[in-house]
């Protein structure tokens, strides 16, 4: 993990605290974990994340269709709220960034902005 990624994860960890479950990014044709909390380590397979991304609203075809239908600009993030966790999925060329955390009082918009800014660099 290069220094920029380490700094990004450290910033997320300081903002989200112990609720942060994991951070995964598409890199060199694979999804790579930048951070996994001990209790979720090894739970997410690269093939599963690739399928989730491909079949979600952020998959290339679906994203373009949604952008064209809604005519509100580029889709930046999808937010999935589950019983026990929240998953943020960001499109990144040519892959994605996944950030997930426990369903707790997390400053959602601040986390979205932080992730978006990091991806834009």
Task: Give descriptors for this structure.
about 30% strand; 5 strands; alpha+beta; 5-stranded antiparallel beta sheet; about 120 residues; globular
Q: Any idea what the radius of gyration is?
A: 14 Å
Distance between the termini: 16 Å
What is the share of helical residues? Answer: 25-40%
Q: How many DSSP E strands?
A: 5
User: What global shape is seen?
Assistant: globular
Strand content: 25-35%
Question: Which whole number gives the mean pLDDT?
Answer: 82
Summarize the biggest pleated sheet. Answer: 5 strands, antiparallel
The number of helical segments is 4
Query: Which H/E pattern describes the elements?
Result: HEEHHEEEH
Which regions are unreliable across 5 or more consecutive residues at pLDDT < 50? none
Instruction: Give the strand line-up of the largest sheet.
Output: 2-1-5-4-3
Secondary-structure content class: alpha+beta
